[in-house]
Write a structure and sequence with these properties.
Blueprint lengths: L1 H5 L7 H14 L3 E6 L4 E4 L1 H7 L3 H4 L10 H17 L3 E8 L6 E13 L2 E10 L1 H34 L5 H13 L6 E8 L4 E8 L3 H4 L4 E3 L4 H8 L3 E3 L10 H9 L4 E9 L2 E10 L7 H32 L9 H17 L3 E10 L1 H8 L1 H19 L5 E6 L2 E9 L2 H16 L2 E3 L2 E3 L2 E9 L6 H18 L3 E3 L2 H4 L5 H13 L3 E10 L4 E13 L3 E3 L1 H9 L3 H22 L5 E6 L8 H13 L6 E6 L2 H4 L1 H13 L3 E7 L6 H5 L5 E4 L1 H6 L4 H16 L3 E5 L4 H10 L3 E3 L7 E2 H9 L1
Parallel strand pairs: 17-18, 20-22, 22-23, 23-24, 24-25, 25-26, 26-27
Antiparallel strand pairs: 1-2, 1-5, 3-4, 4-5, 6-7, 6-11, 7-8, 9-10, 10-11, 12-14, 12-17, 13-14, 15-16, 19-20, 19-27, 19-28, 20-21
Helix pairs in contact: 6-7, 6-11, 7-11, 13-14, 18-19, 18-20, 20-21
The chain binds ligand C2E and magnesium ion (MG).
């Protein structure tokens, strides 16, 4: 040190040394001082003078402690004493109070013991530490913020990960609960879900809620709760002092205060302005929630809301995919998906199950004439009525199509009990329905298939039930149980069309005849020819088994020709025996699509020399729907031949008498669905009576078909119906048998 001083020019005299040190001290960046053992200033530099703001003459002998912040003085004293005692240099951080006590700055003081005139003194330097301290403080704040953000991000990430891929409500709530549990500052919280029907919120999951808080099911009202407010505002709601917060219902406030809960934060759960619920966080003390944490809470809210909304949407989609929107009933998909499990359970217990396929008659008519609103209301009432019948049988109802329902009846005890259950359903359906002051009556048919007897899976069983249903409809008997004979030829049905040529040549088609009774004279007026196929493998086939197949191909023309030929041949024999019976032959829609039938007819009438007025052709009501213009043109040309025309099954479709007036129609055959129920149903009776009157006024003759009871026959006679046909009087028979019947 001495050496380096001596190198300074002019430093070789005592004055020179002092001046050198003085300059050096003044050049140092901090405040330099020498104090005695009591802390009294002995020497100092200009920086100290400036900082203290005290003139130099007053500084001498002043206590350095004056400029030390009172809280740091003890520490400073201790350091001074230690240095004096040990002689070891030391340093400390102190706050120094500057000029006129305006500025308090942080300093690092480094001090050492020196001997001046045999007195132990302290020499020290105080360096301004404030800037560094400030940076350190800021760093600490940033660090804290980063840590907080990190924690927030961790929570959000965790929540996102947990909710990822889950769509079921329970899992979403549980995952949200677990995530919030991991959020260190929150101990008591609950997730509430909004019920749009009651407009209340009910507690779904919670942590720390006690029994009292959940005693009423944890239900919060929309008004008078922070939850309702948060939902209405669409933003987080904070309550810093629940005791004073009159936005809360007094009851809720009291419950919370009694549990030392004084603050709350409510995060709304909203998706596209649709309220879903809320997350309610409860605190003992007002929480210090910064902006970043608020953002985190909002993000948690958004994440949970999205998951909840997705889950609801999926649920809704699933419900729609599996349920009929009108009646809320499960549909065909549910049947197919659940059937296997149910069948296995039944089978393992040794039970059989029944599938009842129910088809409503005339439902389409209700829809067409009274409108879809009435039709929809009717379907809802039907659903209710059926469901009320099914409960005690543990049966399940499905809606398969417009007017087609399926009933799954488990644990059936016998075939008879199943049949009678099905009939009881039809009886129930027959009771009038009241809709918008209208009284509507319905009838239906049921086809039944049994599992495992008729099949092991829902699709094949449905097919069996459908076949049984067709049979029930065909026979008009209401209920029919599937049996193999109904179905045995279905696999080979397609081949029937190819066989028609051989069948005609081989005279395999024959006609059965059903007599028509003149109700006034009680005499047989004529016969309807009904075709049958004596099939080598399937036995005697009724028209329902082959006509629909032939109607979709050209085969129908050959069949109609054959029926006309056989019928007219038979009629010629009647005439030869002096009987002028009228013959009725059914035509198909396809027969009216071109001139083939007309040409055949012209030739056959000529060949058998029949009085054309003794031949009546029956045309189904719906035949006219496909190409009415062409059909009308052909009907006129047939009528020109002198052949009579009848509309078959009138009332079953939806043509009006006014439309029929444009046609050369001589006879109206009323649909058997009206005829069969007219004795029991006043409305059907009225329809029959007014149809008869109207037809008469248009110059048409009326035939009632499907008469099965004496009461119906008597009513028809009383109503002035002209002719009647039905199993009650005589079912269709081969001519040889009919001859006996006529004689008998
Ligand atoms: P459709 O013209 O309505 O013929 C009357 C059907 O009702 C016949 O059935 C007959 O057996 C049945 N039936 C008669 N009385 C009663 C009764 O009191 N109660 C019930 N429930 N049913 C009764 P089938 O012979 O099975 O004929 C079914 C349908 O096949 C006929 O209905 C007709 O549309 C069609 N069809 C029959 N023969 C021919 C034909 O030669 N050509 C065409 N294109 N169709 C035919
Ligand atoms: Mg007919």
């Amino acid at each position: 040190m001495a050496e380096s001083v001596s190198m300074v020019p002019g430093a070789d005299t005592p004055d020179g040394v002092e001046s050198f040190f003085r300059q050096a001290l003044e050049g140092l960046p901090g405040m330099v001082f020498i104090v005695d053992a009591k802390g009294k200033l002995l020497a100092w530099n200009h920086n100290l003078e400036q900082f203290a703001g005290i003139p130099s003459e007053s500084l001498s002998g002043a206590s350095l402690m004056e400029v030390v912040h009172p809280e740091d003085r003890l520490g400073a004293w201790k350091m001074t004493r230690n240095i004096l005692r040990s002689g070891k240099s030391d340093s400390t951080e102190v706050r120094l109070i500057g000029r006129q006590k305006r500025r308090t700055l942080e300093y690092l003081v480094q001090a050492s013991r020196v001997k001046l005139q045999d007195r132990n003194c302290i020499v020290g330097i105080a360096l301004d530490h404030s800037a560094r301290k400030m940076v350190e403080k800021e760093l600490a704040i940033v660090r804290k913020m980063l840590l907080e953000r990190n924690e927030n991000l961790r929570v959000i990430n965790q929540l996102y990960d947990r909710l990822q891929g889950y769509h079921d409500l329970g899992t979403i709530l549980q995952a949200s609960l677990e995530t919030l549990k991991g959020y260190s500052r929150i101990n008591t919280f609950g997730i509430f879900l909004y019920d749009p029907e009651t407009r209340n919120f009910s507690l779904a999951v919670n942590r720390g809620f006690d029994e009292v808080m959940t005693s009423d099911g944890g239900v919060l009202p929309s008004s008078g709760s922070l939850t309702g407010l948060a939902l209405a505002q669409g933003s987080i709601v904070l309550s810093g002092d629940i005791g004073l917060d009159h936005r809360l219902e007094p009851r809720v406030r009291q419950i919370l205060l009694a549990r030392n809960i004084n603050a709350a934060v409510v995060i709304p759960l909203i998706h596209f302005s649709k309220p879903l619920g809320s997350i309610n966080l409860l605190f003992e003390k007002t929480p210090d929630i910064g902006e970043s944490e608020l953002k985190t809470l909002l993000t948690i809210g958004h994440t949970v809301s999205t998951a909840l909304a997705n889950s609801r949407q999926l649920e809704d989609l699933q419900h729609r995919a599996y349920h009929d929107g009108l009646t809320g009933l499960p549909n065909r998909l549910v049947l197919h998906e659940q059937f296997g499990r149910m069948a296995d359970a039944m089978e393992s217990q040794g039970f059989s199950m029944a599938l009842l396929l129910l088809d409503l008659e005339h439902f389409k008519k209700v829809n067409d004439t009274l409108g879809h609103q009435i039709g929809d209301a009717l379907l809802r009432q039907i659903t209710q009525r059926l469901n009320s019948q099914l409960a005690e049988h543990h049966a399940r109802l499905f809606r398969l199509d417009g007017d087609e329902f399926l009933i799954l009846l488990p644990e059936i005890s016998s075939i008879e009990s199943t049949l009678s259950f099905a009939r009881s359903l039809l009886v129930e359906l027959k009771k009038p329905f009241e809709i918008s002051s209208l009284r509507l009556e319905l009838s239906g048919s049921i086809g039944i298939a049994l599992a495992p007897r008729d099949g092991g899976d829902s699709r094949s069983l449905l097919r069996c039930a459908d076949i049984a249903l067709s049979e029930a409809r065909r026979q008009g008997c209401g209920v029919s149980m599937y049996n193999r004979t109904l179905d045995r030829y279905t696999v080979e049905r397609q081949s029937l069309v190819a066989e028609i040529g051989d069948a005609i040549r081989g005279k395999k088609f024959c006609l059965h005849y059903q007599p028509k009774l003149d109700l006034a004279s009680q005499q047989v007026q004529g016969f309807e020819a009904l075709v049958r196929w004596q099939h080598p493998r399937f036995g005697l086939l009724l028209p329902g088994a082959f006509i629909p197949l032939m109607e979709v191909s050209e085969a129908i023309h050959r069949l109609t020709h054959e029926v006309l030929r056989q019928g007219l041949e038979e009629q010629r024999r009647w005439r030869e025996k002096g009987k002028d019976y009228q013959l009725a032959v059914n035509l198909s829609a396809r027969n009216l699509a071109d001139e083939r039938c007309l040409n055949d007819l012209t030739k056959l009438l000529h060949q058998y020399d029949v009085a054309p007025g003794l031949l009546e052709l029956e045309i189904a009501e719906n035949t006219l729907a496909s190409d009415p213009e062409e059909a009308v043109r052909l009907l006129n040309r047939i009528a020109d031949l002198g052949v009579r025309l009848a509309i078959d099954g009138f009332g079953g479709g939806h043509s009006s008498l006014t439309f029929l007036r444009r046609l050369p129609i001589n006879t109206l055959k009323m649909d058997q669905s009206f005829i069969q129920s007219m004795a029991e149903s006043k409305e059907d009776g009225l329809i029959v009576r007014s149809t008869i009157d109207l037809a008469h006024s248009l110059g048409m003759r009326v035939v009632a078909k499907g008469v099965e009871k004496a009461a119906t026959q008597n009513l028809l006679k009383e109503m002035g119906c002209d002719l009647m046909q039905g199993n009650y009087y005589c079912p269709p028979k081969a001519w040889r048998e009919l001859e006996r019947w006529l004689r008998g």
